[in-house]
Amino acid sequence: MSKRTEKTIVDIAEELKLSVSTVSRALNDNPNISARTKDKVKKMARKLGYRPNALAAGLRNNKSKTIGLIVPRISMFFPATISTIIQNKLQEYGYNLIICQSNDSYDQEVALVNTLYSARVDGLVVSTTLYTTDFSHFDVFKDNNIPLIFFDRVPKDYNVKVIKGDDYVGGYTATTHLIERGCKDIVHISGPLTCNLYVERVSGYKHALQENKLPFKKTRVFYQELTRDNAWQACEKIFAQTPYPDGIFASNDTTAITIMEYCRKINVRVPEDLKIVGYSNDPRTEIVTPPVTSVDQYPAMMGERVVAALMELITNQASATAPRYSQEIIPIQLIARESTAGTVKTGGKKK
């Protein structure tokens, strides 16, 4: 089988008896080239199957017009929504996006950072793994003055641009809402404390209890990856003995929905016997029965702010005085639904 030969602008120029420079300018819509010539050149490019070499162009002008994005899992509602917003907004600025997922593996995150650096991306946007506490693999971007932004899951003491949700207020608001609805024994299902999100949500949960003179009980807090299987196992422990809690604050909506499923199995009524608050305002929270109260993190706003900050860093890249290290906090809002409606029956029993 013969090897496929890539067509170049030289081939287009030879076919049309034009100079290479004219073909190049026509393909790039140079205003000094007539519309007729542009049309001829583009038609011939399509006929020959010409594909522009973005890598070669990037090497010439030191810009790839490509941004790297690393998220934990593209299957999750929050990072998936933000990824879509980032891609759409970047296209408005003429940038392409390479989306990578770390699968919450630190080693995979390190490998992806190196791969994207080698690909000569013009900037990197990252939501880290649950377990990233050493950020030195990102130094190659900082040291080479390549724009770097962290969002959602962010480092605590690493001097970069950070855009994050108001997770402390989110934890405080969710717990206070349960207390205002009459709950006095509130379980919190958290993610691992190696991740900034959950440290802050737990802190907000504790503050709300303290403010309302309710005890903080270590046995009422679970630290785990927020998967369906883990949520089910937590429920088996929570409901293994009475009295049952009268409220649960879950740090994601998958966990909240799983808790409701478990409650149906053991005939605990939501919201009559138990009230539940989730986190992220996943669309599923509106269509399950009963609909789940959740904390909206405004992913569209966060995605838009990430792109705006990135474009500012790229624009000011050559400026030694441009501010590169700052923190921006995106607000939250509690969306009250039926899972926290009505009155609480204290110390729910098995039916």
UniProtKB/TrEMBL annotation:
Recorded superkingdom: Bacteria
Record Pfam families: LacI (PF00356), Peripla_BP_3 (PF13377)
CDD domains with a match to the protein in the record: HTH_LacI, PBP1_LacI_sugar_binding-like
Boundaries of every HTH lacI-type domain copy: 7-61
InterPro entries in alphabetical order: HTH_LacI, LacI/GalR-like_sensor, Lambda_DNA-bd_dom_sf, Peripla_BP_I
GO molecular function list: DNA-binding transcription factor activity; transcription cis-regulatory region binding
Keywords linked to the UniProt accession: DNA-binding, Transcription, Transcription regulation
Keyword DNA-binding appears in the UniProt entry: yes
Gene3D superfamilies associated with the record: 3.40.50.2300, lambda repressor-like DNA-binding domains (1.10.260.40)
UniProt xrefs under SMART domains: HTH_LACI (SM00354)
This protein's name: LacI family transcriptional regulator
Origin species: Chitinophaga polysaccharea
Origin organism lineage: Bacteria, Pseudomonadati, Bacteroidota, Chitinophagia, Chitinophagales
